[in-house]
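Q: I'm writing up a methods section and want to include an example of the input and output format. Could you take the sequence below and give the corresponding predicted structure tokens, formatted cleanly so I can copy it straight into the document?
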Amino acid sequence: MIFTGMKISSAIFAGSSARVEGKPRRRLPEFAFIGRSNVGKSSLINMLTGNGKLAMTSATPGKTKVVNHFLINDNWYLVDLPGYGYAKLPQKERDKIAGVIQDYILNSEELRVLFVLVDSRHDIGSIDKGFIAELGEHGIPFALIFTKGDKLGPVALQTQVDRSCDILLESWEELPPVFVTSSKDGRGREEVLRYIENLIQ
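A: Here is the clean output for your methods example:
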């Protein structure tokens, strides 16, 4: 029998917080998602959970400004982090959001993996590279998710993902796990959920 990834039977909003001490008191494995503000993070979260209204999607990037915990199957948290690198916000606001992100990533003892989302249509940018470099410096376990995989044809998509991986390999000896997803056609869902389940067991 081929394992096709975990079945998500329940996905419940469990709370928002600006600091780790304010997160849900029940301690369970956490799998967090982060990326540039226009990378399609909320749509991906809704696709993974099978709940189109779980995470707030908006035509205006940068709406998430706190850490949102969602209790999945009553045994792990999916964590929605604010986006980074949204230039249209005032600097003071950007600094505040950066502080929220850093506090969670560095201080949440239950964080198992941070999924870093990158738009599959473009070369990985300097802001993403800088963020990933910081994760390496602090020893934060992470994986890469290339989003919007339906926007390019199969050959162009693979070429673009390979380019971004090659860019990262200029400063990394090896890459973390890499996934390609699409919130439109559901690709990558089983692979990401299977990866999460393997880490929970």
